[in-house]
Amino acid sequence: MKIKVKICGLTTPEALRAAVDAGADFVGLVAYPRSPRAVSPLRAAALLEDAGMARDRSAKVVAVTVDPDDDLLKGIADWIAPDFIQLHGAETTDRADQVRAITGAGIIKCIPVSGPTDLEAAEAWGEAADHLMFDARTPEGSSLPGGMGLSFDWTMLKGCTFARPWFLAGGLNPDNAAQALAASGAPMVDVSSGVESAPGVKEPALIAAFVEAVRATSPR
Fold first, then answer.
1. Per-10-residue mean pLDDT for the chain, 220 residues long?
2. Spatial separation of the C-alpha atoms in residues 7 and 11, rounded to whole Å
3. Most distant CA pair in the chain: distance in Å?
4. Mapping DSSP to helix (H, G, I), strand (E, B) and coil, where does residue 49 land?
């Protein structure tokens, strides 16, 4: 089965197009003002238009949020009409149901991980989420919940089964993608800072190299 790839934190039409051309299955647009990769719903709509994805979506569009309020969700729904909303904060399953009702989008719930017991949080999300994402827990007091290039012990996921398909995230790049997949057994991966030359600056060559590295590990 093909391992699916999400390229997150895209901020230019060139980077968005590079992700699609490389064969990414998901593209992420960050709607969190504190992130160096933040784009407003209006700007995200323009990116999709300029990249030729306003109507022809060859990759699923994910709006990445952190404890979003209803006004932001309505703006995302109106301007982007994403396939998925990624919840990267302290959202509850009840809030996820509200997010789904407001936007009409599927739900990707990110679970921060620093040790094996953190994986237990996934049990509550079997009904509320379409996909799970396991990302490295950021340091206490950090203004960002992810996108910092941090990783965790990938081997703790090996052999685990979850109620929903899941992404591995955190510290991935073209050089370690194969190692991460072998260690974790992940069916999907998410990358952001690992394909950048600076925070928020995606490099098309690194995007292509990451997708190629993942595809090389997929069963033929």
1. 94 96 97 94 96 86 97 97 96 98 98 93 95 85 57 92 95 96 96 94 97 84
2. 11
3. 45
4. helix
